[in-house]
Amino acid sequence: MESIICIGIELFFLISSILMFIILIISGFNFYLYLMPLATALIAIITLIVSIKDKNRKYN
Question: I need a labelling partner for 30 at 20 to 30 A (CA). Which of 1, 10, 39, 53 fits?
């Protein structure tokens, strides 16, 4: 149950960082400001992959 909650939180961070990246591009901010949501999305993808592998390992 807690792995499903962790995956949901990681998906939330991934989706919100992608939306923030799109909003920053549309608003025309500086390139260095784009790095913050990109880094958040990268961390969310990595932790999501680890959580999915951990979830599959617990059931086997």
Answer: 10
Look up residue 38 and give its amino acid: L
In order along the chain (60 residues), what is the average pLDDT of each group of 10 residues? 77 90 87 86 89 75
Give the tokens for residue 43.
């961390």
Contacts of 24 (CB under 8 A, 6+ apart): 33, 34, 37
Residue 4 near residue 45, CB atoms below 8 Å? no
Torsion of CA 53, 18, 16, 24, to 10 degrees: 160
Q: Are 3 and 57 in contact (CB under 8 A)?
A: no
